[in-house]
């Protein structure tokens, strides 16, 4: 296939409708064509959203009825002599009806699985992209020429270190040995803006060691605090701080 023809296959590829030879040729084309790669990504996302919008779970009784009838209805031999068997109300007609019902149920089930798998893969890619961006920003703060560090012992024998880069206007908190929060609770970090606490994000409730890029600019904040909050965080602190740390001075 020539390049012009390959450009027309984005929709079919996104819907997994290409035979193997064309799919393989198109995938080789994708390695060098950013426009087609982007179009496939957008079409796949659109197809997933459309599928989710119309997807329905087949009723449980349909599956049970189909399986019950398949076990009791014998498939008849194909007609001979050019004579076709028609549906009607006979045994063959019943078999066709149940076979069709089985196909519909299977298509609905497998269609739902495909849409679900597509959505899961898309969510995983988005989470991976977000994690990569956060890691890049965290590395920029830690490697900044003006990065300043201060450390302190926290409650329960834990250890905390905060790194601030004024040129990046960001801060990173590194925790070690922190007790995991109780069920339904989470550690929330706050900027200390001259006595006013501003939310700077949540810590991973499953990790006793964590590196957190504080959410938002440092601006005039002179330090940070950590409180124990309900899962999902709070608009303002609702408990006594489990840690208070001053930011390093310039």
Secondary structure tally, helices: 6
Mean pLDDT: 76
Multimerization state: single chain
Span of the ends, CA to CA: 63 Å
Shape: flat
- Structural class call reads alpha+beta
Order of helices and strands: HHHHHHEEEEEEEE
Radius of gyration: 30 Å
Strand proportion? 15-25%
Low-confidence runs (pLDDT<50, min 5 residues)? 81-89
Largest sheet: 4 strands, antiparallel
The main sheet orders its strands as: 1-2-3-6
Secondary structure tally: strands: 8
Give the fraction of residues assigned to helices.
Answer: 40-55%
Question: How many structurally independent domains?
Answer: 3
Question: Descriptors for this entry?
Answer:
four-stranded antiparallel β-sheet; 250 residues; Arc Repressor Mutant, subunit A; alpha+beta; flat; 3 domains
Describe this structure in words.
This protein is 42% helix and 21% strand. Helix 4 packs across helix 6 (91-142) and helix 5 crosses helix 6. Strands 1-2-3-6 form a four-stranded antiparallel β-sheet, covered by helices on one side. It has a four-stranded antiparallel β-sheet with strand order 5-4-7-8, with no helix packed on it. The N and C termini lie far apart (63 Å). Strand 4 and strand 5 (196-202) form a beta hairpin. The chain has three domains: 3-54, Orthogonal Bundle (Arc Repressor Mutant, subunit A); 60-77 and 90-141; 148-246. It contains six helices and eight strands; from the N terminus they run ααααααββββββββ. The longest helix is centred in the middle third of the chain and has 52 residues, at 91-142. The chain is flat, with a radius of gyration of 30 Å. Residues 81-89 have low confidence and may be disordered. It has helices spanning 3-6, 10-14, 20-30, 34-54, 60-72, 91-142; strands at 148-153, 159-165, 170-176, 185-193, 196-202, 210-213, 223-230, 243-246. It has 250 residues and is of the alpha+beta class.
